[in-house]
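Async update (no meeting this week)

Hi team, since we skipped the sync, here's where things stand on the single-chain job. The sequence we agreed to prioritize is pasted below, unchanged from the tracker. I ran it this morning and attached the output directly underneath so nobody has to dig for it. Comments welcome in thread, and please keep replies under the output.
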Amino acid sequence: MKRVAVFCGSRKGRDPVYMKKAKQLGEVLAQHNIELVYGGAIVGCMGAVAEGVLKNGGKAIGVIPEKLKTIEIAHDALTELHVVETMHDRKAMMARLADAFIALPGGAGTLEEWFEVVTWAQIGYHEKPCALLNINDYYTPLLELFDHMIEQGFVDQLHKDLIIMDSDPHKLIHHMKEL
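Output:
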């Protein structure tokens, strides 16, 4: 696992623990010599994970659509910054560059990006680990929704089992490296 794509919010969230754990994930990635692939912004959890990587000697690769360069404020001190045309281009490049995927707390965009790579894993387009960093029990309701979808016959248990989840960045990376 040389590169991990991290999907997360361009906002900080209400609880400071989100920024703290995002930065800690970046630190852990750098400690394991795993490069970060992410949305390319300097703000919110995105900025925190990149700073955690960069301040610990790691490499951070940003992928940002031209339209979001000023909205999300592109990070100007990354190892690489790719400016692409559309969100589709962003997701395709991030998926191509990454060996695994992690979602931190975020909004609809974070969920959409993460669900796409999970869906691709379910239908066999890739065999890359897909994980959730469950900071502050943020993703616990999502796993409950998966249980409901399984109960209602729309999802198989084996698809839920593809999801790696932990609230500790060190443990999460350890679980992902075991695969």
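Quick observations from my side:
The longest helix spans residues 17-31.
The domain at 3-178 is CATH 3.40.50.450 (Rossmann fold).
Reply here if anything looks off.
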